[in-house]
Amino acid sequence: MAFLIGIDGGGTSCRAAVAGPDGRILGRAKSGAANILSDPDTALQNIIEAARAAFVEAGLDPAGICEACAVLGVAGHNVGDPVHHVQRRLPFAKAQIESDGLIALQGALGDKDGAVAILGTGTIYIARQGQSVRYTGGWGFTIGDLGSGARIGHALLQETLLVHDGIHAPSPLASSVLAEFHNDPREIVEFARLAKPGDFGRYAPPVFQHAEQGDVIATRLLAAAAVTIDDALDRLVAQGMQKLCLLGGLAPLYRPWIAKRHQSRLAEPEADALTGAVALALARYGDDRSSAA
Amino acid sequence: MAFLIGIDGGGTSCRAAVAGPDGRILGRAKSGAANILSDPDTALQNIIEAARAAFVEAGLDPAGICEACAVLGVAGHNVGDPVHHVQRRLPFAKAQIESDGLIALQGALGDKDGAVAILGTGTIYIARQGQSVRYTGGWGFTIGDLGSGARIGHALLQETLLVHDGIHAPSPLASSVLAEFHNDPREIVEFARLAKPGDFGRYAPPVFQHAEQGDVIATRLLAAAAVTIDDALDRLVAQGMQKLCLLGGLAPLYRPWIAKRHQSRLAEPEADALTGAVALALARYGDDRSSAA
């Protein structure tokens, strides 16, 4: 029987796991960035490197990846050209490229119905009911991703300009941001002009920290951001979702900000996205072929 | 005595007026775009063309512009290089380049103290007390210009995605925008990715129109936008401004949305920006040299 490979390819690093035909994970490893959209060739290289390293970690011959069956979760899985480019060059016997969200959902919920809210630099919601998987939100920073780290950071910088102009009252958080930009609003404007979502997103964790200390601006920004998350969770509940998992880097920070009406539905994730990728590989390529794609 | 020239240089057109030594306007004319930042040479050409045409309109020899004294109001007047480029090449005997906002304020308030809120594709506030002129806001679309046409249009497209996702309830306005994009959220995302502030701003007037008909989304968006204007006006009032003028393309639309506490301070502008430029030219270069710069 062939080994199974799960890949969790992200913009910062690529993680891989190898499992036996029964789905039990034998080894894990990590390599560099696997951003299929911005750099498909480097992504491909790091996917292969992580897979080989996982085999080595498991005490297996890394040449074995060529006979293994893989499921990969990546950002931008539905953007045609770069995905085809990578798909054609993967060295595995069989491979399917899925969204990073789907492997995260599989890891978090196992085979149960429910939904995940992925709260990181961006935000996206994925609901599964039986075989049906539905995506909500996730339209990106420019016009979507409400409540995301990028949007929180953007709102903070905007608020800092209002404080500088004397339109809003100052707070320790706004003062610290102003000081970082040498109290020069033009520096903030210039930063924002060039900033990518990840650059804005780096200002989100401090907002949560300051809110804990009662900072009025941080509290106002997070109350507004949490409403956008609650609104989206309302939609998932209306679709029949009983179990909700918060995932992503901001999930633990957001937990206390989520409305009471949703708290009883929040569940801890069963496992991580990499485990989810292996589980999907098992379902599709494992001993039990009944649910193979 | 030399003639006086006022120039109102905008991104769409350039207007010029010529006045006698007493400041009485003798002729007006208009030419093409005068965007000093994006195309200083074309701007220069259109400034000269408008000035010459104003002389012709007044029955004067257009060669006379070389002996005239001018005040020009332009966007981006404080951005070094392109302004120096234009300043050095102006054919007038004397000339000063000011902000488009300052000539608008001069036109609206005459020589009185007070403030103007310029509500168009962007938003900026200018307050004058005696010789002191203070700018508030106007940091641009990315991180400022709250309440502007661009921000209202952006908020509408964002809201339309939330309606598409079933997170917010629909409204006639959101449905009409969705229909314009063939009910395909990806078309909205792609539009937003490439849109400049003016592209977003074109969606602002329909928001005001739909709000008048009771559209819930339009009403919510404008209520939120008006709060940002009211907050800025609060700041101007706290600075001692008793007289406020709303200027710019959205001014008449915004008027009923401004908070009651400000309504008694709102005044109609005395004259337009071009008249303001001529008035500044008179003050600086006219017969009465007492307030010349």
Automatic annotation (TrEMBL), chains A, B:
GO molecular function (one): glucosamine kinase activity
Organism domain of life: Bacteria
Keywords: Kinase, Transferase
One Pfam family per UniProt: BcrAD_BadFG
Domain ATPase BadF/BadG/BcrA/BcrD type intervals: 5-277
Keyword Zinc carried by entry: no
Name recorded for this polypeptide: Glucosamine kinase
